[in-house]
Amino acid sequence: MIRIERLSVRLPGFSLGPVDLDVRQGEFFCLLGPTGSGKTLILESVIGIVAISGGRIRVSDRDVTGLPPEQRGVGIVYQDCALFPHLSVEKNIHYGLRYHNGSNSDGHARCRDLVERLGLAGLLDRSVTTLSGGEKQRVALARALATAPSVLLLDEPLASLDPCFREEIRDLFRSLHRETGITVLMVTHDFTDAHTLAERVAILHDGRIEQTGTADAVFRRPATVFVADFVGMRNVLPARRQNGVLTVDGLNLALPAPNGSHCYAAIRPEHVHLQPENHENGEAGIAGRIRSIVNQGLFAELAVDASGVTVKAVMLTSSLMELGFRQGARVHLRIDPADVHLI
User: Residue 133 and residue 288: Cα distance in Å, rounded?
Assistant: First the structure.
């Protein structure tokens, strides 16, 4: 487990914290946020390679705040792998054993098991400079696990990989976590990673945690406007609730809600349903006109002007072609009140 209490780090031009975070024993936890939000700084504080300004850090019920990195029982894999280019694959994997207490034979046996499990047996004599991105990540993972850490830290390990390698390494992380039960804290800016791997997530913004919860809860019920935007709720609109109607400028949505207070209506683009203006079987919905269409291949993103409000929608490209939607076409929007999240 990892327990971070009131952690703060002060750097020129940036302040982290205070941050409180609990990662449970055996949990796969993802820390998400945009570039520059302080994600990697939290990992480097846990592993002990940055000076913290305040707070405490506990790993597996030990206060490690004042301990050097090699005594913390923590392994880390960086985005760029940080392998030693002058060493072979095998020597990279064994590198950390010299700095850790324990039986040398146990360490080498563990390395042999990792080499087999990660499919590295045919690469041991290779220079790491000749490896593919996915191979480098597997070597970095073996090196991080060779010392039998109680906690594994992953610093955006998938960000620089091609899509095919990304899926391969993601599956590898998932299977290793399932087999070993090791506690994992992973930093990422990709919500796909969180949905695929994490039991819980935290969203970091400008050095502070904005929300913690299961990936599904944060994705569907963001607590702040920033979180809503970060998790892809493309429609985050200032609104007012009055007489059971949610008013977004001139756009009225029948929605049971307390009266009076200003709020934001957050609606995922996939929950905005579009029909042609002359559709015979559907409900009338809200009248609008398609302002723009961006074809993304499998799906398309549409911006629709409705009563002076721009509403974002997504739909399969095949559906777009079937319905014959074009820029400037008149449409009707339907939004299920259950899909409107109020912030």
Answer: 47
